Amino acid sequence: MTAIQVTWLREVRAFRGAFSCGVPVAAFLAACGWTFVMTLRRNEGSVLQIQSIWGLSIAPWLPLLSAVLTMRLFAEERSTGMIDLLMSSPIRERDLVIGKFLSAMTVMAVALLLSLTVPVLILPALSAPVQGTVRAAGFVATFLILFLQASTWCAAGTMISVFFRNQAAAAVGSLVLCSGLPVVAYAAVLAWVPSVRTEMAWMPLLVHVYDFSTGLFSTAILALYVMTTVFFLFGCSKLLACLRLRG
Amino acid sequence: MLEVDHITFSYGRHTVLNDVTFDVAPGEIVALTGANGAGKTTLLRVLACLLMQDSGSVRLDSVNPLLRPIKYRRGIGYLSEHCPLYSDMTVEAYLTYRVRLKGERSMRVRKRVSEALEMCGLDEVYKTRIRLLSHGYRKRVGLADALVQHPKLLLLDDPLAGLDVRQRKKTAAVLTAASSRAAIIVSGHEIHEMLEWCTRFVVLGKGRVTATYRTSDYSREELSRLLEQQVGSGAGGEVRS
Hints:
The complex is a heterodimer. Chain A is mainly α. Chain A contains twelve helices and no strands. Chain A has helices at 3-14, 18-42, 50-58, 62-80, 82-87, 93-115, 117-122, 128-132, 136-163, 167-192, 204-213, 219-246. In chain A, 41% of the residues are buried. By secondary structure, chain B is of the alpha/beta class. In chain B, 36% of the residues lie in helices and 25% in strands. Chain B is built from eight helices and nine strands. Chain B has helices at residues 40-47, 69-74, 91-101, 106-119, 135-147, 165-178, 191-197, 220-233; strands spanning 2-11, 14-24, 29-34, 55-60, 76-79, 153-157, 183-187, 200-205, 208-214. In chain B, helix 3 packs across helix 4 and helix 7 crosses helix 8 (220-233). Chains A and B meet through helix 1, helix 5 and helix 12 of A and helix 2 and helix 3 of B.
């Protein structure tokens, strides 16, 4: 087994505890269900497809779930001192970071798959014409963009958790970076450049979800999320290496 | 085997290690002692690659940790002062995880773990969750972790702290046995006990090596008195060897 696999396995097992995984995922699903129903009601009679409504109701909650899942990854190791044992072991920081990131992504993927039960449970209650518009390919594309966004948030959360010994502080830091900053940036753009309000009626992050759910793929968007994820993971491994400079 | 050459380390303006030089031969058990704040833990952290020195060099069998960190770290076993462990795991699962993380081949993992369990007297508790263990047993698990992959150099930060007499004797026996295939650097304040099984004492005072003594060169009483003087004075006198 490689160091990445060993780390991944250990972290996935650690996630089995109710507080670090079960409760956040359950809360995420409940929030997604509520948002899905609300979005469905609000868009009654509109041309939005079911997979778009599903994607748009899940995307806002992803930063929150990723912050909770990733907050303990390094903050806990630093508070308990286990980081010393890991850093004195013959493994690269990169492997440690990737192993931990993949464990968070595993839980995230499970949560996203479980969130598919939201439309599955609600669809039978909808009218036959609506059910007829549901396409599996649309859901796959939506899942892909949600997964990519989740990977970016998880990578950012993993990096943020290196900064802190306190898990709550790491979660807040992650939320500020993944949720707060995009919202503030979006609001700032709208405030400073009023002329773009028509084109930017939605936040770009939600536009990406909508585009993918309707079949509008963009290589640039795919590359953006992959590159951002790699950037955060790279930053995380370098931050870990920096811990050696001053402990 | 281990060459520590003019190591200097500081936190900002506060110099913690100042021109520390010594070496350790295979089979030696070197006690690193000194007053609180003398720099023992920092020196061990530098040797364990947890801190990077400002100047000077460290070599383990000619391997420089700054140039070949993975190879260097493969040769060391480290026990931290507070002995952190994953409390949710059983002793056996934890050691298995650690051996795998250290890159041991799959077929040897079980053998390494059972050897370490036996050596550290953990056979009875190997299925017990770590959070249920006493402080003494937790220290033994930490020691087993440091020993598990047969490192060339063991770095043990205050392994006797908080242990009762029986546990200390057990730890001493484990270290004596381990010295047959590894050099050991152990920090601590328990001079009288370490006199029985350490081969050399390196005294640190204000970040400098203030004295080194081979236990074979002195009677136990004489060395005990000298060490107490050195540690008590904090700064120490001139370097002797």
